Amino acid sequence: TLDLTCRRTPCFAKFSEMEEMVNMEAEINEVQPLLFSAYTQHFNTWSMTRGSTLQFYFIGKKCKILQDMNRHLEAILKEKRDLRKRLIEHRCQESLPIEATYHKCIVELLTEAVTFIEKLESHLQSVRNIPQIPHMMNNMDATLSKTEVLMTELEKLTEQVLKWEELQKEVYSN
C-alpha cells in the first residue's frame, strides 16, 4: 500500500526529463563528429571519383583524337606507298601504240615539253611577280629620279673640277 500511495513529486519528474535531455545531447555530441567525419569522407570520395571520372573523360577524348590522327596518317602512308609503287613500275606495256608517221611529231612535242618543264619555275616566278609590278615601277621611278639628281650633281662637280684644273694650270703657268 505504501508503494501504491507513493507518488512522484513534480520536482523529480522534471529532474528525470532533464536527465534524459542531457543524455540525448551527450549522444548527439558523441555522434556528431562521427557524422561530420563520414560526411567529409563521402565528399572527398565523391570529389576524387568526379575528378578521376573527368580525367577518364578527357583521356578518352584525347585518345579518340589520337586514333583519328593515326588513321589519317596511315591513309597518307598507304597512299604514299601506292604512289611510289606506281612510279617504280614500268609503264612501257601500257602505253598506246603510235603510228610511225607521228614519231617525229611526238619527239618534237616531248622536247618542247621538257624545255617547258625546265623553264616552268621561272615562268611561275614571273606570274607571281605580276601583282608586284606597280610597286616595282614606283621603286624604279624613285630610283630614276635619284639617279637624275646624282647626275646633275656629278655634272656640277665635273664643271667645278674642270674650272679648278684650269685655275691650277694658270697658277703654274704664271
Total helical segments: 4
List segments where confidence is low: pLDDT < 50 over at least 5 consecutive residues.
Answer: none
Helices and strands: which structural class? mainly alpha
Helical proportion? over 70%
General description of the model:
With 174 residues, the protein is mainly alpha-helical. The protein has a domain of 64 residues. It contains four helices and no strands. It is elongated.
Please provide a brief summary of the model.
Residues 66-93 form a coiled coil. Helices cover 87% and strands 0% of the residues.
Keywords, separated by commas or semicolons:
mainly alpha, single chain, coiled coil, 4 helices, HAUS2 protein, HAUS2, 174 residues, HAUS2_metazoa
Secondary structure: elements and pairs:
Elements: H1 2-5, H2 10-88, H3 103-129, H4 133-173
